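Incident log, structure service

09:12 report received: a user says their structure output differs between two submissions of the same chain.
09:20 pulled the input from the user's history:
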Amino acid sequence: MSDRKEKRAAAKAKLKEKLKKAGNMLTNSKFFQKKVDAAWEACNKDGSESINKDGLYTGIIFIHLKLAENAGSAACHPPSREVCDKLFEAADADKSGNVDKEEFSDIVVILCGQLLKRMIAYYGFMIVLVPIISVALVKVSGRFTRIPSGTLTEKAIEHVTTGFLFSQVLPFFWNRIDDKAHKKMIDKATAKNKNE
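09:34 re-ran on a clean worker, output below:
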């Protein structure tokens, strides 16, 4: 076996190991695999059986948009181009500038590994915590204002507060969480490249 093939086989084995750790109920489902297959078909129009960095990023965006059709906005937060490029470089052991369908699928699973947690947390916050926090904030601020308790005005203020938390506060925290997760992925990919 040539040195190039050995490097490629070793890189695939490492990627498979990471895939096992990153996989979850969502990424192991047939539904998700159909989305990955559709993304591959959309990115590999020329039938070359490999794609470059642009194709990978396009596939990631495609999958996130398709998942958002079913799961809502919680699934529509794709990783940055930098994160995708670093994982591409880590998967491209032979430095050919392309990855095949299996590598593409593995990278997608790694990049989407946090989506199920994100969706559960997002909808848990949306359905339970944000309304409770909004009501509590309005009640506390009601002590310092002249808004009568139990009125339509108080309910309207609670809804405005809920909208503010959804549109301004939660995205700030989601971005912080995503930035940390993506930085961790980049650091791992960079460390792997330095070790090779």
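09:41 both user submissions now match this output. Likely a transient worker issue. Closing.
09:42 reviewer note: Residues 20 and 28 are 10 Å apart (CA to CA). The helical segments are 3-22, 30-43, 53-71, 81-91, 101-112, 115-142, 152-195.
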